[in-house]
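A further point concerns the way the authors explain their paired sequence and structure data. The central task, working out the structure tokens from the amino acid sequence alone, is never made concrete. I therefore recommend that a typical entry be quoted early in the introduction. An entry of this sort, consisting of the sequence and the corresponding backbone structure tokens, reads as follows:
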Amino acid sequence: QVQLVESGGGLVQAGGSLRLSCAAPTSIFSINDWAWYRQAPGKQRDLVAAISRRGRETYADSVKGRFTISRDNARTTVYLQLTNLKPEDTAVYYCNERGALPDSYWGPGTQVTVSE
């Protein structure tokens, strides 16, 4: 079973920054595209950013220019740098393979809370 461990969340004021990390299994890391998702209370889980095996990045319109996804294949870790945070960014953030389904394995996520 895939094990994913997200970390780095916290409580920040609007305009602040955070760096999220996700440790992924060594056996599958380098061959997969990876992504960060988020789920706000009462809402569905949405894709925030993705990075391909070759490092090509894609972003949701709502975070373009503010969030940056990266990957370290040697450490089998995916990162999400969040800057200029807004209250509407408040959510639980998850990482997973790009295209993961709702009934796929999901880690516990990491809570990001942005205050006014």
